[in-house]
Specification:
Number of strands: 0
Distance between the termini: 24 Å
Number of helices: 3
Structural class: mainly alpha
Strand content: under 5%
Order of helices and strands: HHH
Helix content: over 70%
Radius of gyration: 17 Å
Length: 103
């Protein structure tokens, strides 16, 4: 049962990573004028990804100022999600199953 819960957590973290990457790609497409903001499909995807990612990115943007106009908060969030998904959840799962040490 514990394994299923942690697999579900890892899957959700993976989906958040995908949504975050889609958000970044669409922002680049807007920035370089590849796609118009008037496109209903792209605009809808942008609103959806913004609604999911902005609550996670806003606190990081307060802590990490843009460097040379580049927003590094997305990179920091992706790194944090990766660490949670691939290191912390495995360690915590082994710890709860009694297979690993605390440190």
């Amino acid at each position: 049962m514990i394994h299923i819960i942690f697999e579900l957590i890892r899957a959700v973290l993976g989906l958040i990573s995908v949504v975050l990457i889609v958000h970044v790609v669409i922002s680049w497409l807007f920035a370089f004028d590849v796609v118009s903001r008037r496109n209903d499909l792209v605009s809808g995807i942008w609103r959806f990804t913004s609604a999911i990612t902005e609550p996670m990115l806003r606190p990081l943007r307060r802590l990490i100022p843009p460097i040379a106009g580049v927003d590094l908060s997305v990179l920091v969030l992706l790194l944090g999600i990766y660490l949670l998904q691939h290191e912390v959840t495995w360690w915590l799962e082994r710890l709860l199953r009694g297979e690993g040490a605390f440190l």
